Amino acid sequence: MQIVLLGPPGSGKGTQAKILARQLGVPHISTGDLFRQHLHEGTPLGVAARRYLDAGTLVPDDVTESMVRARIQEPDARVGFILDGFPRNLSQAQHFETILSDLERALSVVIYLAVQRHTLMMRLTGRRVCPQCGALYHVQFNPPLTQGLCNVCGAQLAQRPDDREDTVATRLSVYDAETKPLIDFYRQRGLLQEIDGELPVDAVTQSIGGALAMSHD
Ligand code: ADP
Ligand code: ADP
Ligand code: ZN
């Protein structure tokens, strides 16, 4: 299973990718998480990526593409992967086709999570993350059992700096200008499965399951 999750910031890619990764036994590869990890560890890649993450704009393609190329060749990704947040523009998508054909692999399906803009605003500004284990919460839609603390590991939850309102607006415009064209790109290749991402988390997981079953036929 080589799956790409496509959708605007806040559409639920991370939430669904974590569930699917567990169900399917393939790694969840989030380019955003990889960048944040590099940033946290202070690697040269992290230093180079910082200003783009802070601004809510895209990290340059060459940096992003070589990071993905390396990651999908790690042993755990031999059985497949769920890519969350890549590709994010047309040239990344084109380059990704080259990467996959070099590795003699192919995409199984692209799951597009469709969510309206006002829902995205609410989801992003209310998102909270566990800095320790990566679990995702929402102050309203998916609150932790104890306010401010992770259900899984007990750590203090945090807000991503780029989830504040001004950066969210930039990220949504970057999505419209750069990422949206990928919907047609993958539709033309017969890989796109559109899912109603407005539904509750469990219902979205169910419809993705249905779409994956169809893409097997
Ligand atoms: P993305 O990775 O696409 O940016 P996330 O999975 O991080 O999106 O979800 C964004 C926010 O919305 C999180 O706070 C998450 O808890 C919440 N969320 C995710 N899916 C749903 C859903 N189906 N209904 C309501 N809230 C959701
Ligand atoms: P979200 O889940 O809310 O869409 P991500 O965690 O995927 O956010 O991305 C956070 C930031 O990481 C982006 O705003 C961008 O700066 C950078 N980033 C993530 N994926 C890519 C990519 N494929 N190309 C360029 N930049 C990326
Ligand atoms: Zn945790």
Spatial gap, N to C terminus: 13 Å
Work out the helicity level: 40-55%
* Structural class estimated from helices and strands: alpha/beta
- State the fourth-level CATH superfamily: P-loop containing nucleotide triphosphate hydrolases
Trace the largest sheet across and list its strands. Answer: 2-3-1-4-7
The CATH C-level class name: Alpha Beta
Small-molecule binders here are: adenosine-5'-diphosphate, zinc ion
Helix and strand succession? EHEHHHEHEHEEHHEH
What's the CATH topology label?
Rossmann fold
Q: What count of helical segments does DSSP give?
A: 9
What's the shape? globular
Strand content: 5-15%
- Mean of pLDDT: 96
Largest sheet: 5 strands, parallel
**How many separate domains make up the residues?**
1
Question: Total strand count, please?
Answer: 7
Extract low-pLDDT stretches: none
User: What radius of gyration results from the CA coordinates?
Assistant: 17 Å
Q: How does CATH name the architecture?
A: 3-Layer(aba) Sandwich
Pfam families: ADK, ADK_lid
Subcellular location: Cytoplasm
Catalytic activity: AMP + ATP = 2 ADP
Organism: Sulfobacillus acidophilus
